[in-house]
TrEMBL record:
InterPro entries: Luciferase-like_sf. It comes from Blastococcus brunescens. It comes from the Bacteria. The lineage of its organism: Bacteria, Bacillati, Actinomycetota, Actinomycetes, Geodermatophilales. This is Uncharacterized protein.
Length: 141
């Protein structure tokens, strides 16, 4: 599981740096001789704007680019938040190198907005973003 923070900054965009780490992990796994495939998950903040309420909360979101900062004295790179119309989010996620390399995408939610809001947010990801990327619900396979 790799989150939206890496305590490494080589100047490479977050998703590419994370994809490099995934590749190194998979190589190390293969070198051990284990027979099964390793599972890899990454997390992203995905906030589709499909209502006035979403727009009120996130319409002015400015973290659509990687952020670099110092965390406990270490230079760190923070992944961007994916905020916007579902078709634009789908396009951006389809270009995210680490999302494409991972087996699982963990969607982070703004827990301070409560269960009901986050249930709708996740429903909007499932209904509007996932199909545009080609993700299929396991029940639909």
């Amino acid at each position: 599981m790799s989150s939206t923070l890496l305590v490494e900054d080589t100047g490479v965009p977050f998703d590419e740096l994370q994809a490099e780490q995934i590749a190194r992990y998979q190589t190390a796994w293969a070198q051990t001789g284990w027979q099964r495939e390793p599972r890899v998950s990454v997390s992203r903040s995905v906030l589709p704007i499909v209502s006035d309420e979403d727009r009120a909360y996130f319409g002015g979101e400015r973290s659509s680019e990687d952020q670099v900062g110092i965390l406990e004295g270490v230079r760190a790179r923070f992944g961007k938040s994916y905020v916007g119309e579902p078709d634009a989010l789908a396009e951006d996620l389809a270009k995210d190198a680490a999302v494409q390399e991972a087996d699982t995408l963990l969607i982070t939610v703004p827990n301070m907005l409560g269960v009901d809001y986050n249930a709708r947010l996740l429903e909007n990801v499932v209904r509007h973003v996932a199909p545009a990327i080609g993700w299929v619900h396991p029940d639909q396979r």
